[in-house]
Amino acid sequence: MARADGHLTAVVDSADKGQDECGVFGVWAPGEEVAKLSYFGLYALQHRGTQSAGIAASTGEQILVFRDMGLVSQVFDENDLETLPGHMAIGHTRYSTTGAHAWENAQPTLGPTGYGSVALCHNGNLTNFDELQSLADERLDKHREVVAAHKQKPRRTRAHRDSSSDTSLITELLASSDADNLTDAALGLLPQIKGAFSLVFMDENTLYAARDRHGVRPLALGKIDRGWVVASETAALDIVGASFVREIQPGELIAIDEDGLRSHRFAQEQAARCVFEYVYLARPDSVINGKTVHSSRVEMGRRLAREHPVDADLVIATPDSGTPAAVGYAEESGIPFGQGLMKNAYVGRTFIQPSQTIRQLGIRLKLNPVKENIEGKRLVVVDDSIVRGNTQRALIRMLREAGAKEIHVRISAPPVKWPCFFGIDFATRAELIANGLDTQEICRSLGADSLGYISLDGMIEATTQNSSELCTACFSGDYRIPIPPQADLTDAELSGTSGTKDS
Fold it and tell me: How far apart are the C-alpha atoms of 218 and 249, rounded to whole Å?
């Protein structure tokens, strides 16, 4: 079941930050209210996507899907969740990086198989979409030939791929497999998928989770009294009372049913975890590969203070993503940390279209300066990243109007110079402010008194991760994962990087 009662509109344009595609959640727990567990799990993952949300639940005999545009709290109410009974469920909250921002691309997707149904949720971005689409077309053509030759009624249709998303394509390929069960279908398909994917999917009786061989996006496994939980981040395990067991490993498929948990290896690990998860994407209270995100961000702030010191009166953060690094900067520099900006916690998505006058106010809908803390002060303003620069430019103008004497911007990530093909909606190179401008030029463009970025090495060291197991392509241009053949990068731009275009 599903509803489509109109699109929602973002009041505050968040395009100046890299947006992750989505968050995924799954639970196998007979005797529990799995739809409600999924709801609260998605609530904890809301930061990973705000365009749409959905839950699929299985009774063992059928799978029901409820999805819509908007925040989790806008899509579901108590009555909606009561219509999703069962012993297991999967859920999704979406920010689109492929596929239009439309109801048809909301997840979970649902498709018929020869032995039941498959519902699927996806976080990431595929880099060989055209290749996989050709495979799906070949399967459909072959099926039609068999049907015509034997004068049978066709069983396979494109009805369940009426969208433009990676997720629907994966669902179709799983559903159209000649395998006798979903486990074998997945083990046959997953090695052929390139790019980034963390998947949670199910048939009527078994819950599955899989992570690409590079482990680009996080995916965690937890245990509750009556079963198991999988989620994009450990924070979602915490909110439903699940104890963290381990991460799903890169190149691993797990299956959970009444016989327990089984693990399958479909590819050898070639780790390239996204470092931007530590910088901005993940919740601060999540743990990724053994490291608390919050502690990484605080350490980034400390290193930033050592690399780019400045005489100032107050350290403030661009809330909320810049707060841990600002705390670290203040601790290391000895400059007091204070609240310079108030965030409106209720700004997100709304049914009300902002007027042109309100739209021109831009960032003021989300942030407002605390004038008594700012006036006459030399400020260090700490943020996690600069993509296009629009947000920082408006923020600096607002702080000057509030009476700031000096504004020194400090960024806890290196300059973003390269696009992401693995699930973050970064701009094209032409739109990235750090592409073609050096730090001093960016500083002048923003209207700041000074600007300092953390070094690439400093950022990596703050995560305590092995640099050889991190993807830093958006900062370094080093694409360790092959990028799509249609990528907007010239051979000259790619020279000196270890990444290559798909053949």
Answer: 9
DSSP-derived letter for residue 272 is: -
Three-state helix/strand/coil letters over 355-396: CHHHHHHHHHHCEEECHHHHCCCEEEEEECCCCCCHHHHHHH
Three-state secondary-structure class, residue 196? strand
For every residue of 336-350, DSSP letters joined together read: PB---EEE-TT-SEE
Residue 12 has pLDDT above 90, yes or no: no
Structure tokens at 204: 């009527």
Burial class of residue 83 (count of CB atoms within 10 Å of its CB; 0-12, 13-18, 19+): exposed
Confidence of residue 152 (pLDDT cuts 50, 70, 90): low
Strands (E), 203-257: 207-211, 220-224, 227-231, 243-247, 252-257
Taking the C-alpha atoms of residue 326 and residue 379, their distance in angstroms, rounded to an integer, is 11
The residue to which tokens 């819950």 are assigned: 207
Cα 386 to Cα 99, 211, 306, distances in angstroms = 25, 29, 20
Report the distance separating Cα 217 and Cα 22, nearest Å.
10
Assess whether 22 carries a catalytic annotation.
yes
- pLDDT surpassing 80 at residue 407: yes
Evaluate the omega torsion of the peptide bond into residue 457 and state whether it is cis, within 30 degrees of 0: no
Catalytic residue among 22, 274, 420, 474: 22
Separation of alpha carbons 409 and 453, rounded Å: 9
Distance CA 454, CA 372 (A): 30
pTM, entire model: 0.88
Amino acid of residue 117: S
Query: Could you tell me which residue, 298 or 428, shows the higher pLDDT?
Result: 298
Average pLDDT over residues 379-399: 94
Q: What is the CATH number of domain 287-344+362-474?
A: 3.40.50.2020
Buried b (16+ CB within 10 A) or exposed e, 464-482: ebeeebbbbbbbbbbbbbb
Joined together, the tokens standing for residue 214 give 């590079």
- In angstroms, what CA-CA distances link 319 with 22, 260, 325, 410? 21, 43, 11, 14
The domain made up of 9-271 is a member of CATH 3.30.70.100: no
Q: Do domains 9-271 and 287-344+362-474 have the same CATH topology?
A: no
Domain extents for the chain? 9-271, 287-344+362-474
Number of other CB atoms surrounding residue 440 within 10 Å? 10
> Per-residue b/e over 166-179, b at no fewer than 16 CB within 10 Å?
bbbbbbbbbbbbeb
